[in-house]
Here is the input.
Amino acid sequence: MCIEEGTSSNSTDQDTRRLYVEELLPKIKDLSLKALRKECAANGLSVRGKAKDARNHLKHKLLREFPDLSPSFRLRQKRKELGTPYDYLVIIDFECTCKQSDADDRYKIDVPPWDYEIIEFPAVIMDVKKKEIIAEFRRFVKPKLNPILTAFCTQLTGIKQEDVDNAEAFPVVLEAFQQFLDEHGLNKDNISYTIVTDGINDIPNFFQFAISTYNLPFPHNFRNFVEVRQIFIDTFDLNYGLNLEKLVQMTGSEFEGTPHRGIDDARNIVKVVIFLLDKEIGILATHKLVKQKFFCMVSPNSKDSY
Here is the structure.
């Protein structure tokens, strides 16, 4: 059955109705306003308003009737089937140097990260089966390019000038972090783990900039990572503008600690991860970095080599 613009199904047969909806859903975005109004009328919806409103109302009406046809439902099913193939998750949330004019741009993918130097390197190790934190790591980092913190940075993160003045440089802290993983057995041959972050910037932007600043080799254990916000938003068909506090609230929990304090953020990301695991939503790598002129992101299923 092919649904042309402006046609509607009057059949009461559930299978025919489902087929009609299944074929109409991908066409909604291309229908003219006239065709949208006809489809809305046929489905008991108001025919007033702009095309954008008509598309949204029609789509939501059809997906309420057949929720299993939504992309988010299919994604949930796929993640349930695949599961979480790791023994441990290492949750990281870097804090960086910043200035007030950067505040609104900090989490935008298209904003160059070169002003941001890591000043807090926090991580928590989570046991996937037990769904609990088993170890924590936190070190302040001395910035190289912008050694004096702005007042805005201190106010936002709670990190003081003396914290970074007394800290080690990034290479030393990174080595301490890798040793921390060794001490907890994560680098054994029979153990699997992956890095987890809240948003998109921590690894490809902040971490990579630190690596390039000191001309260090890019560690293999950072080349695949999970952006938990993307999993949450894609799975439940939400807007990407949610911050960590709102994500935590949507799980039914409360944010504990101070926002933008790295170790507190990492602990709260664990709440989001546990919520997804309780819903049987698989935690799988969402991004993979491959080396070109610099490390760039590709699909985790990409065949590009390191």
Remarks:
- Residues 14-69 form one domain.
- The first helix runs from residue 14 to 24.
